[in-house]
């Protein structure tokens, strides 16, 4: 499983997100607000909030911005009821795509998601049509540098409950169960190691390589259009972007 998750894919996604940092912060702020409404404002007592905060930090969201988002959450969401909706479908040449949304208007969101797929030679499928090809995991990606001792990092990860540790050419990948993610991520942070990405995600069991330039262009267009949508929180896929 671990070999299928490429650092290049993560880096490519991060570069896209960095170009629109404001939108990323807004989306994470919405996740924080929903987590606070569901489980309270104390991350030590609210595991969902704790995981979103980890994601926020990995995306370089300032601590004061995170704190403000938590403090404002209950008031902001007083009259808004966001609903989690997940869409599944196929991109060009059958690439599996999962779209995770938070919305207060299901009709608008459904129309936008359907349009994004159809515009980029994809199509929406039924619930469960591609999710069986993914595993829900905690995933921590760390860029490989000279000041990180591989053996020490591996021991920190495994001793704190990680399922798997992979040392790539230019990255380290730590895989956990969703339940153990918070503890493992905290251990990595306490060791003074900065992650490139830290979140609960859907890890593809296999990846799909596109050879047609037209298909690649359309797949990139589908991902970009979905990520631009304010209602879309996460886009998971098995497109091998290397």
What would you note in describing this structure?
This protein is of the alpha+beta class. The protein has three domains: 2-76, Orthogonal Bundle (Arc Repressor Mutant, subunit A); 83-132 and 206-237, Alpha-Beta Plaits (2-Layer Sandwich), CATH 3.30.70.980; 134-204, Alpha-Beta Plaits (2-Layer Sandwich). Helices cover 44% and strands 21% of the residues. It is built from eight helices and eight strands. It has helices at residues 7-18, 21-39, 47-58, 63-76, 106-119, 150-159, 181-190, 213-228, and strands spanning 83-90, 96-103, 123-124, 134-143, 164-167, 171-176, 197-204, 232-237. The chain has a four-stranded antiparallel beta sheet with strand order 3-1-2-8. 36% of the residues are buried.
**CATH topology of the largest domain, anyone?**
Alpha-Beta Plaits
CATH architecture term of the largest domain: 2-Layer Sandwich
Q: What structural category arises from helix and sheet content?
A: alpha+beta
Order of helices and strands: HHHHEEHEEHEEHEHE
CATH superfamily of the largest domain: YebC, transcriptional regulation domain
Distance between the termini: 17 Å
- The number of helices is 8
Give the helix level as a range of percent: 40-55%
Rg estimate, integer Å: 18 Å
Please give the domain count.
Answer: 3
In total, how many beta strands?
8
Q: What's the shape?
A: globular
């Amino acid at each position: 499983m671990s070999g299928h998750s490429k650092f290049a894919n993560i880096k490519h996604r991060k570069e896209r997100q960095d170009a629109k940092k404001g939108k990323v912060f807004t989306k994470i702020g919405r996740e924080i607000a929903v987590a606070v409404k569901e489980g309270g404002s104390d991350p030590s007592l609210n595991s969902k909030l704790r995981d979103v905060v980890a994601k926020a930090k990995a995306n370089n969201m300032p601590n004061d911005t995170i704190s403000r988002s938590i403090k404002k959450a209950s008031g902001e969401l007083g009259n808004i009821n966001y609903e989690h909706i997940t869409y599944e479908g196929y991109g060009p040449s059958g690439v599996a795509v999962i779209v995770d949304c938070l919305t207060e208007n299901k009709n608008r969101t459904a129309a936008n998601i359907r349009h994004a797929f159809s515009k980029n030679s994809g199509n929406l499928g039924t619930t469960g049509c591609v999710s069986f090809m993914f595993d829900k995991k905690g995933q921590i990606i760390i860029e490989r540098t000279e000041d990180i001792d591989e053996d020490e990092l591996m021991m920190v990860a495994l001793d704190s409950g990680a399922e798997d540790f992979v040392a790539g050419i230019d990255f380290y990948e730590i895989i956990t169960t969703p339940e153990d993610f918070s503890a493992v991520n905290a251990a990595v942070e306490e060791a003074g190691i900065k992650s490139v990405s830290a979140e609960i995600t859907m890890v593809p069991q296999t990846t799909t390589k596109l050879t047609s330039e037209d298909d690649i262009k359309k797949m990139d267009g589908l991902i970009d259009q979905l990520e631009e949508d304010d209602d879309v929180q996460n886009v998971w896929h098995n497109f091998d972007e290397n």
